[in-house]
Q: What sequence folds into this?
């Protein structure tokens, strides 16, 4: 290990250290001081975020060829840490209300984030697998965090069993590639590919196909999505919010790394397979979301649908270099998706009292009682639907534009994407419709039989931390919608800086 | 000069603060934020002007890119500002006059329930107008153009519980929209021709790209002019401005007299390079301008509503400005814009002071009269404004209006000049008529109920400031002494055009001195007639009265233009809308949309049933998916 190895690992080490410290501190804290845990976790996340931004990047793989700390890693880490930070802010009060505010919660969230960071930074297929597992195992535990709730237990078990299944396929894919090329290093695989395609094409094709399946499962792409709605609905909402963001971002980070070897080997085959996955995902996600009346389920299908748009960028992504429009678009989309999905789930989190499963009926007229919360939700919905002046518009715009530039298959994908977005407008705006245009239950009739809660309308539990979290997400969604160049410029700048760092 | 963005950002901050927090702030803080932001912006604008003056004449163009707004292939929209003499003049007018009107509003709107909402919108308007004049490309100009339209809509309908105010706001919005439609097509044509929205690029390339007098140049300029016709209330789209008087009076002063309605004039002055390539468009601009100047003046002759007289007068004066730009005298047009901003803001605010004195919303001059003794200050400044607008020396209006008439005459078009001169007679008459009706004669208001009182100092001081500008503003450009700092300042913007080169005018049939005398005589004639009728009380013989009865009725009913538009556009439009909403939309389109929706709904229901909840089923799906992918890859 050299000094620069440690330098490159610093953000991850900070996250790991924070996770362990939080777990330990929990033992010595009295019940009413549990709030410190969230604050401490946030502190760690911020420290890792800053370290990540200000550390120098390196062109070549580090830590014996396992890890890359390049511009791509840097941006991905920023997205993961932003998502993790917001998820912690939104979870703090919710977990307290649910009686699950234990130290393990934050520890697991942080470790899962570490897994995503490892995936994004991996220069080796085994490191990719390790990252995938480090990401997933805490999520399995988190899904069952409402121990006394059967739905939560079911969610955790389903996620675990299917996840194990997909991990096995993924690992099998790595084994096949190792068999074909004699190495698990991504650089090495790339070099050995042309020879291996001649000698043993079966191994290469099988290996890459299984890698694709494993990642598609994590990204919840159709037909590997079936776990998502059940798990999203059953898990505690704060976990769902984090899961929807972390697992998906991690998977797409890995996609960007794998692109470097898969596109040369499969050529148009890759674009075609991933493209069909994208089409199936967009179609099914959006169409089924239309009939969902349960908010968490609706957002689950919405997150499936968004995996479809992201897959378009993967399909036309070329070699995954940051300077390519598709990769830049994918990263911008990931950032925006993180913000708007966490925001939307965040509103569900604060609107949820004690674990009841909210349906659209429950948020009727909410915007009139809590104008700021309602406005934020409307903003997130508009952004998810991809309408200006929100960031969601430019996220879709850049991905679709990259697709159109990539040729005729890309044009087909972009058209399907646009049609799917039109469908999505229906169910996103229906949420806004319920928020604003349906009278609150209190105004209709005192049908609830004198229940105080029904009289005043459903309350919103807006703690200061959650308000800050929602506020940050909303402001960023709006800011990137008015001025997307801010993020894009940063993307190109770090790409250029990384180019310069390559010896 | 680098700080010019501060001028823009301050009113926006004020609007945000008052809009978001205003309800919780004390009134003093709200007015402090509103007036302070515009006042400090004015100081920064003065600073920018001084910076410009320090530069050599031909380097007085400063662009500042705040950020890249939209970056895409083929369209690069920058959020960037352009500071040159032309925008500096507009900057000073908007912030300077705007500041005075903000201060006046503190008194005028003091009792209003929605104090903070009012100031937040007024600040937002100031920001939008500054954006319009500071934009360095057509796209940003259009953003400002639409934003001022929105603010105008919001402020006309400020008292939205009053049906007449709400419908006036709607009318203003819809009528200007007609012009904006043309304006937008003009912008699209510009972009299609030049591939950019940047002023400086377009103006540089225009002489090469557009043929002189060609169809394209004419089309672009006429379409842009359509937008100006709507925004600046010219024939045939002037109908919204009189109704816009439903808004609070300071709003009428700021938006519908001093600044927003002059946006069209500014736009043409800004794009004069294009207009000079299209002589036909120039002629149209001049013709519409002078026609509006005359017809609006005739409508002002018989109106009894003090604010509406001022509104028609505004339309008429805007006509003069278009006349000036139409004959290529851009600097003169801009000068009249500035001088009109002083005088008309003064007149509107004095009218507001009269209304205030009479206890609120009384605008009918038939129920005023004899207020001179009760409102000595208001009466004096109103007289100054009236005389200024009539063109009596040495007030600023004399210099600016005379300049326009002179330039028109020198451009060789005697008909335009004659009509303009006739309108000047009418102007003097209707201005003094409203002054006499309001302040002279016997009180016609209910003396038992209303006790007029002079306005508080916070309203009077802005009036004095504007009165001072009206009296001394003329020194900016004394044409007959060849003392013209205003023209000198604007020269770098307007030279290089085709017209500027033919400095030697065709041999003038009348000397400058004669022209000067004629326009003063015209003003004097109008004033004299007003004096005869309303002070001396000359009664006209019955025969003459009967002979003029039809004309009076026609004018009183504003040529029945509103009725005509209702019959021509509003009624058929409503019929069409009813058809579209009923048979077409409900029946056909809604049917299709609902049909698709129902299909998707059914599909979604069917697909969601696939979610059985059994892990074995899910695993089977995954396996099937994996197999399909692998089989495809192997068979490929």
A:
């Amino acid at each position: 290990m050299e000094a620069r190895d440690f330098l490159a690992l610093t953000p991850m080490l900070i996250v790991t250290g924070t996770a362990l410290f939080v777990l330990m501190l929990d033992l010595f804290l009295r019940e009413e001081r549990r709030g410190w845990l969230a604050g401490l976790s946030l502190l760690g996340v911020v420290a890792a975020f800053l370290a990540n931004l200000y550390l120098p990047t390196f062109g070549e793989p580090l830590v014996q060829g396992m890890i890359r700390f390049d511009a791509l890693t840097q941006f991905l880490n920023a997205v993961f840490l932003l998502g993790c930070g917001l998820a912690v802010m939104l979870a703090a009060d919710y977990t307290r209300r649910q009686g699950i505010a234990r130290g393990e919660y934050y520890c697991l969230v942080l470790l899962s984030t570490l897994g995503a960071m490892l995936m994004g930074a991996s220069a080796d297929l085994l490191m990719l697998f390790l990252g995938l597992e480090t990401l997933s195992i805490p999520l399995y535990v988190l899904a069952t965090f409402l121990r006394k709730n059967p739905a939560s237990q079911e969610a955790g078990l389903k996620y675990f069993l299917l996840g194990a299944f997909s991990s096995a396929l993924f690992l099998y894919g790595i084994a096949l590639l190792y068999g074909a090329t004699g190495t698990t290093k991504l650089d090495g695989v790339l070099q050995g590919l042309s020879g291996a395609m001649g000698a043993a094409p079966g191994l290469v094709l099988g290996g890459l196909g299984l890698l694709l399946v494993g990642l598609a499962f994590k990204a919840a792409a159709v037909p590997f999505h079936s776990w998502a709605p059940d798990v999203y609905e059953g898990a505690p909402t704060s976990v769902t919010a984090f899961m929807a963001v972390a697992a998906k971002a991690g998977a797409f980070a890995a996609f960007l790394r794998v692109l470097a070897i898969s596109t040369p080997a499969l050529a148009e085959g890759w674009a075609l397979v991933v493209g069909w996955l994208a089409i199936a995902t967009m179609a099914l996600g959006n169409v089924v979301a239309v009939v969902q009346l349960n908010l968490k389920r609706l957002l689950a299908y919405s997150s499936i649908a968004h995996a479809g748009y992201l897959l378009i960028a993967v399909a036309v992504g070329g070699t995954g270099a940051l300077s390519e429009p598709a990769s830049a678009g994918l990263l911008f989309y990931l950032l925006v998706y993180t913000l708007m999905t966490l925001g939307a789930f965040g509103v569900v989190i604060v609107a949820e009292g004690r674990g009841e499963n909210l349906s659209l009926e429950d948020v009727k007229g909410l915007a009139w009682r809590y104008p700021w919360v309602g406005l934020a939700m409307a903003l997130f919905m508009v952004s998810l639907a991809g309408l200006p002046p929100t960031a969601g518009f430019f996220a879709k715009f850049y991905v679709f534009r990259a697709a159109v530039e990539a040729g005729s298959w890309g044009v087909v994908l972009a058209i399907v994407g646009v049609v799917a977005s039109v469908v999505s407008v229906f169910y996103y705006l229906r949420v806004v419709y319920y928020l604003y245009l349906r009278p609150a239950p209190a105004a209709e009739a005192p049908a609830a039989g004198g229940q105080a809660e029904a009289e005043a309308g459903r309350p919103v539990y807006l703690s200061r931390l959650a308000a800050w979290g929602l506020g940050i997400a909303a402001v960023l969604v709006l800011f990137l919608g008015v001025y997307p160049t801010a993020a894009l410029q940063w993307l190109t700048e770090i790409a250029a800086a990384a180019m310069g760092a390559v010896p | 000069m680098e700080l010019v963005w501060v001028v823009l950002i301050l009113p926006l901050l004020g609007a945000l603060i008052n809009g978001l927090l205003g309800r919780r702030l004390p009134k003093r803080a709200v007015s402090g934020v509103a007036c302070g932001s515009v006042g400090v912006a004015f100081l920064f604008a003065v600073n920018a002007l001084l910076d410009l003056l320090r530069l050599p004449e031909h380097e007085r163009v400063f662009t500042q890119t705040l950020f890249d707004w939209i970056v895409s292939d083929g369209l690069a929209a920058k959020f960037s500002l352009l500071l040159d003499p032309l925008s500096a003049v507009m900057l000073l007018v908007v912030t300077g006059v705007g500041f005075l009107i903000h201060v006046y509003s503190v008194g005028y709107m003091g009792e209003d329930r929605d104090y903070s909402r009012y100031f937040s919108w007024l600040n937002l308007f100031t920001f939008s107008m500054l954006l319009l004049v500071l934009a360095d490309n057509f796209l940003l100009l259009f953003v400002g153009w639409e934003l001022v339209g929105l603010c105008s809509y919001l402020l006309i309908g400020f008292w939205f519980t009053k049906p007449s105010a709400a419908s006036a706001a709607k009318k203003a919005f819809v009528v200007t929209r007609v012009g904006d439609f043309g304006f937008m097509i003009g912008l699209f044509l510009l972009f299609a021709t030049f591939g950019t929205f940047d002023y400086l690029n377009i103006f540089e390339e225009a002489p090469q790209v557009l043929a002189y007098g060609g169809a394209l140049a004419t089309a672009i300029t006429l379409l842009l002019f359509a937008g100006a016709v709507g925004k600046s209330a010219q024939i045939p789209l002037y109908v919204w401005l009189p109704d816009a008087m439903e808004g609070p009076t300071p709003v009428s002063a700021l938006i519908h007299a001093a600044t927003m309605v002059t946006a069209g004039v500014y736009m043409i002055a800004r794009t004069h390079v294009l207009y000079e390539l299209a002589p036909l468009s120039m002629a149209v601009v001049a013709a519409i301008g002078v026609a509006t100047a005359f017809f609006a003046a005739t409508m002002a002759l018989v109106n009894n509503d003090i604010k509406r007289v001022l509104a028609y007068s505004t339309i008429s004066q805007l006509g003069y400005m278009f006349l000036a730009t139409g004959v290529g005298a851009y600097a003169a047009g801009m000068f009249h814009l500035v001088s009109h901003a002083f005088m008309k803001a003064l007149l509107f605010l004095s009218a507001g002071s009269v209304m205030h004195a009479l206890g609120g919303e009384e605008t009918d001059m038939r129920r005023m009269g004899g207020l001179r003794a009760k409102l000595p200050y208001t009466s004096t400044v109103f007289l100054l404004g009236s005389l200024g607008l009539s063109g009596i020396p040495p007030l600023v209006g004399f210099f600016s209006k005379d300049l326009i008439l002179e330039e028109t005459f020198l451009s060789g078009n005697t008909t335009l000049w004659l009509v303009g001169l006739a309108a000047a007679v009418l102007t003097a008459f209707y201005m003094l008529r409203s002054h006499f009706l309001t302040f002279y004669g016997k009180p016609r208001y209910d003396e038992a109920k209303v006790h007029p009182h002079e306005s508080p100092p916070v309203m009077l001081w802005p009036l004095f400031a504007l009165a001072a500008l009206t009296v001394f503003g003329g020194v900016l450009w004394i044409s007959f002494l060849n003392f013209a700092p205003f023209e000198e300042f604007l020269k770098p913007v307007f030279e290089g055009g085709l017209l500027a080169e033919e400095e030697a005018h065709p041999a003038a049939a009348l000397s400058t001195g004669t022209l000067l005398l004629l326009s003063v005589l015209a003003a004097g004639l109008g004033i004299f007639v007003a004096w005869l009728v309303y002070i001396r009380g000359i009664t006209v013989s019955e025969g003459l009265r009967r002979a003029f009865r039809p004309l009076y009725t026609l004018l009183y009913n504003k040529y029945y233009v509103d009725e005509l538009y209702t019959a021509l556009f509003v009624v058929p439009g409503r019929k069409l809308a009813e058809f579209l909403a009923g048979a077409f939309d409900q029946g056909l389109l809604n049917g299709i949309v609902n049909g698709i929706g129902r299909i998707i709904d059914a599909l979604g229901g069917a697909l969601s049933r696939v979610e059985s909840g059994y892990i074995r089923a899910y695993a089977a799906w995954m396996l099937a998916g994996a197999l399909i992918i692998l089989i495809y890859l192997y068979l490929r």
About this structure: Chain A touches chain B through 39 residues (CB under 8 Å).
